[in-house]
Design brief:
Blueprint (H helix, E strand, L loop, with lengths): L8 E5 L4 H12 L3 E8 L13 H16 L3 E5 L1 H17 L6 H20 L4 E3 L4 E5 L6 E5 L16 H4 L2 E2 L7 H10 L21 H5 L8 E6 L8 H13 L33 H5 L3 H8 L10 E6 L4 E6 L5 E7 L22 E7 L4 E6 L7 E7 L4 E3 L11 E7 L7 E8 L2 E11 L6 E6 L2 E7 L1
Parallel strand pairs: 1-2, 1-4, 2-3, 4-7, 8-13
Antiparallel strand pairs: 5-6, 6-20, 8-11, 9-10, 12-13, 14-18, 15-20, 16-17, 16-19, 17-18, 19-20
Helix pairs in contact: 1-2, 1-6, 3-4
Length: 465
């Protein structure tokens, strides 16, 4: 017998945006006992770009939406929990030269944990959000699974990659089967106050921030050199040469190794839309036979060591004595920065470096030496890597029944950031960690970010790079 929906109490995390508004509206239309709760996660407006009234405006819109739908509205201040469990972690990671994802943490630690604790006190059986993803019970067995959202341009499963089975057991995603235009249409037809509201940007429930200003609240600014790395560096770097040689030995007969990634803007197609996984250019037998040491070597990022010597020279008609750096075949100092911890691999904006025909990207940071290394062009060798490693403690399986065992090798589709098309890869689990070997090189592989793997349309697990 189907359960009476009117006896099921659902708390909707109402943000003031159109997605959560339509989620609440649809649940109310389906007959659930719905109430809305708006959470404040941040008080400090000094680092936000839109002033100190952004969250107040969002709360006002959310309250109007709840009134329009005819559901109770509550306000909860979770700023203390958010600072302790998300922001402090962000500061800690950036201080180490890593790039955390606060939205992933916000979902794991706040929306489906701290927020859920409050919702239960109001009698909630479930928490619902406006994420574009789909969750369902696993056919024929106990447990739950997460599927990609129906809209390939809005799929948000990546942000939910750290959820547990217990969290999924009380989670609802009412708009996961809809596209964004359909959500807008429903909101307009229902005359919801948020129907025309633009999508929010920036850090989860904080708003759009100036990241360096935000980080400077706790991380000191210390000037250092920005060093451009030339191609010649890789022709003599032992680690780079070893990696390329080993990758070449893994190739199937007739397969060709692409050394750098082809540039494609991450704007349009985000899901595979049913496309096959594809055949790896690497022999799976040879990949399985790799030693832990070889896998560790493949997954190790290049550590740049370029020394610059100075020389004196005389300049002008008065022959004034000056000092300059001698030319170096491996690179040159092209600028200054205010702290290596404020930069992330793959970053293009905010470098302030001119005089190049092609864009310049961050390829590495050295926190100890306070150096930022950059390379020119989308095909720069330092921008691409084939293999990453996830520490055993950081491997998270959404489906514990499908977790890999040490020594096992599987083929999955993987993304290493939110707006990245899914990439075919081989996962190798060893006692020393989970290694992901991609079929094609990946640009901007940043430590601290989450790698997330999928089987078909289902998201299976994730881990911190």
């Amino acid at each position: 017998m189907e359960q009476d929906k009117s006896k099921i109490k659902v708390c909707v995390g109402l943000s003031g945006g159109v997605d959560s508004s339509v989620a609440a509206y649809l649940l109310r239309q389906e007959g659930y006992d719905v109430f809305a709760m708006f959470m404040q996660n941040w008080h400090d407006a000094d680092s936000t770009l839109h002033g100190d009234c952004e969250w107040e405006e969002d709360r006002f819109v959310a309250e109007m939406v709840a009134r329009k739908i005819g559901i109770p509205f509550y306000f909860v201040d979770l700023s203390k929990e958010y600072r302790q469990r998300v922001v402090d972690y962000m500061f800690s990671e950036y201080a180490k030269g890593r790039t955390p994802n606060p939205d992933v943490l916000c979902n794991r630690e706040i929306k489906f944990d701290a927020f859920w604790d409050v919702a239960r006190k109001y009698g909630a059986d479930y928490v619902a959000t406006g994420h574009y993803c789909q969750a369902e019970e696993i056919p024929g067995q106990a447990g739950y699974r997460i599927l990609e959202g129906a809209d390939p341009n809005k799929d948000q499963t990546y942000f939910l990659c750290q959820l547990t089975q217990e969290q999924l057991s009380h989670a609802m995603f009412p708009i996961g089967h809809l596209t964004k235009p359909e959500v807008r249409r429903i909101a307009k037809e229902a005359d919801l106050p948020s129907a025309e509201k633009k999508d929010s940007q920036g850090i989860c429930f904080v708003g759009k921030v100036d990241l360096p200003t935000f980080l400077k609240q706790k991380l000191a600014s210390v000037e250092g050199d920005v060093v451009e790395v030339y191609d010649a560096y890789y022709e003599q770097d032992p680690l780079y040469l070893q990696q390329q040689d080993l990758l070449s030995t893994l190739l199937l007969p007739g397969a060709r190794l692409e050394r750098t990634v082809r540039y494609a803007p991450e704007e349009k197609i985000l899901t595979s839309d049913g496309q096959p996984l594809g055949t790896s250019p690497f022999s799976q037998e040879k990949v399985s036979a790799l030693s832990d040491g070889q896998l560790q070597m493949l997954s190790t990022p290049i550590a740049y060591q370029i020394d610059f010597e100075t020389e004196t020279y005389r300049s002008g008609k008065h022959h004034v004595k000056k000092t300059r750096y001698r030319e170096n075949p491996f690179g040159r100092i092209v600028g200054r920065h205010e702290g290596a911890q404020f930069y992330t691999i793959g970053q293009r904006k905010g470098l302030g470096i001119g005089g190049h025909e092609e864009p310049v990207f961050v390829i590495a940071t050295d926190i100890g030496a306070n150096r930022v290394y950059v390379g020119e062009g989308h095909h720069h060798k330092g921008l691409s890597r084939f293999c990453l490693r996830i520490d055993p403690a950081d491997v998270h399986w959404i489906r514990p029944d499908l977790c890999m065992q040490p020594g096992e090798v599987r083929r999955y589709r993987v993304r290493i950031r939110y707006r990245q098309p899914l990439q075919s890869a081989t996962l190798i689990l060893r006692e020393s960690g989970l290694f992901i070997l991609f079929d094609q090189p990946q640009r901007g592989m940043s430590p601290g970010q989450f790698a997330v793997w999928y089987d078909g349309q289902e998201m299976l697990g994730s881990g911190v790079i």
